[in-house]
Design brief:
InterPro entries: DNA_helicase_UvrD-like_C, DNA_helicase_UvrD/REP, P-loop_NTPase. One of its GO terms (molecular function) is ATP binding. The protein has helices at 5-18, 23-29, 39-51, 56-60, 70-89, 95-105, 108-115, 118-140, 143-149. By secondary structure, the chain is mainly α. The protein is globular and about 45 Å long.
């Protein structure tokens, strides 16, 4: 299950929430689900980040200065705001709740539900199976032990 694209996408979202400087994870999810930020726009964001010695995440907050179309700039700013909110929420949510927030707020779950294919149903099942891991951990690990890890 861990090698499926939906799990890799979800792990990339979780990595960004934990470390916004993870450019590799950001590149994977910047247009998943589709938000109009294609490969050439990603290259411009990457170049801007390198030129200014900042992460791609930080470059998104400066999307107005990158030279992208208005639509792509808006997509970048909305994506940045979404990630910022998830980063703030992680401070007071359980892992399973963060995963749920990612699936809902990014539109990832809705994207798969709209597809209505055997493949998309399988991908949703994989996500649900993946979700059982942190839920099981939270339900079966004493709070004292969880606080040592977090």
């Amino acid at each position: 299950v861990l090698f499926r694209s939906e799990i890799k996408d979800l792990l990339s979202y979780l990595r960004i929430v934990a470390n916004s400087n993870d450019d590799i994870s950001l590149q994977r999810i910047i247009n998943v689900p589709k938000r109009g930020i294609g490969p050439s726009s990603v290259e411009k964001i990457q170049a801007y980040a390198l030129q200014n010695n900042i992460s791609m995440f930080d470059a998104l907050s400066e999307a107005d200065f990158i030279g992208l179309s208005k639509k792509v700039t808006q997509g970048c700013i909305q994506f940045y705001d979404l990630l910022q909110n998830l980063i703030k929420e992680q401070e007071f949510l359980e892992i399973s709740e963060i995963v749920e927030e990612i699936l809902e707020k990014t539109g990832y779950r809705a994207m798969l539900e709209r597809e209505q294919t055997i493949e998309s149903r399988s991908r949703l099942e994989n996500l649900d199976e993946f979700m059982s891991v942190p839920k099981d951990y939270e339900e079966n690990t004493p709070l004292e032990e969880q606080s040592l890890i977090n």
